[in-house]
Give the backbone structure.
Amino acid sequence: MTDSNRSATVVADGRPPTLTTLAADGAGMTPSGAAANRGDHIERVLVAGATGKTGRRLVAHLADAPVAIRAMTRSRSKIPALESLGANEVTVGDLMDPDDAAHAVTDVDAVLTCVGSTPLQVYRSDEHVDGRGNRHLVEAAEAAAVSTVVMQSSLGACGDRGSLQARFFRRLVGPVVAAKSRAERAIRDAELRYTIFRPGLLLSYGPDGGTVAEAGTGLWGAVTRGYVAWLMAASLFTPAATDRTFEVAGNPLQRGAGTAIDWRLPR
Ligand SMILES: NC(=O)c1ccc[n+]([C@@H]2O[C@H](COP(=O)([O-])OP(=O)(O)OC[C@H]3O[C@@H](n4cnc5c(N)ncnc54)[C@H](OP(=O)(O)O)[C@@H]3O)[C@@H](O)[C@H]2O)c1
């Protein structure tokens, strides 16, 4: 069983599992849902941060979906690993360079970004890939008429009062949260369809699932990278995710705070 047809064990609003997959022909998707598939046809996607702990899971989920995947890394040595995960092509580049960002988005319909700074870079750099790099990506995407951008951000972004954990994130990794906030604003200001996810503490293992709620709800807790990656992939095909920012955390105490969305990932 692949990740993408696994059932959620913790679900938004305590409703039935939110991890839904559809047959490639769209069986199970209402005609209006299929037509309103975020308004356009997504054939090729760029995954920035594809070698990361979330990005690898995102590539694996998308490999089961009817899209071609272009994965991005700064290291040529990581190309074989990305190809074996399911990437159809790999672009080598650094998002801190706007030309590399422009090259990466050429001829893609959607951009999904899970890039992030290393702990050492958080305080040692003035500019972070979370901010400047993502902004280059957004500018390039808008210039290339890419339809959709999906971003992995963080609880605490954009100064939303949020939970104690959101405020803790702002204290602990303030420069990076501020950088992500600038990237979020650039996305919302751009002529693009977008979905932004602000997860709580990321885990590499554990049961997938969690609560997905409107930004500012005040979620707190941990969530698996696998679930965040699945939501990012599904947001491309879930009309209700259009132009929205969500908090994500797997805290059973907050199940009732979730937004009921029928997330769908076609196969
Ligand atoms: N840790 C947490 O609890 C937590 C909580 C909330 C949100 N987040 C955020 O979630 C996101 C994903 O986290 P993760 O742990 O899965 O990430 P990760 O494993 O640290 O991966 C980071 C990725 O960013 C890419 N990258 C870094 N600098 C780049 C640059 N200049 N140009 C292009 N790509 C670059 C790396 O690619 P290459 O090295 O291959 O180039 C790598 O694929 C991050 O934004 C993180 O801040 C984390």
